[in-house]
Amino acid sequence: MSNYVNPMSLIAATPMTQNKSSGGSSWFQALAQAWGEALDSQASVIQQKSDAIATGGTDNPSAITELTTESLRMSFLSNSSNTSISTVGQALETMARKG
What is the pTM (predicted TM-score) of this model? Predict the structure, then answer.
């Protein structure tokens, strides 16, 4: 049995040195955090549009269309985040097994 460790398999565990506030998280964790922040931001936009329709009396077709557009954008972002995190996670798992 060999003690060789593929350096590529260590990349996900390498702490980020630029961002001290994250507590030394890996770039994989930073990727997940960035996706989370993007989704939170989009959820806020949807909430604002929804509140404007519900309380502001702007339930006209253009306002409904804008809300629908933002909801579809949220769906796209959510699917993209899931795909990217899953794919990168699987790649890191494969590298760890082969390392």
Answer: 0.72
What six digits make up the tokens of 41?
A: 């931001």
Half-sphere exposure of 25 (CA within 13 A, CB side): 12
Closest CA to 74 of 30, 41, 27: 41
- Tokens encoding 56: 């502001």
- DSSP class of residue 3? -
| CB neighbours of residue 71 within 10 Å | 15
Q: For residues 28 and 89, is the Cβ–Cβ distance under 8 A?
A: yes
Averaged over successive runs of 10 residues, the pLDDT of the chain (99 residues) comes to: 52 55 74 95 96 86 95 97 94 83
Angle between helical axes of 27-56 and 61-98 (0-180°, round to 10): 170
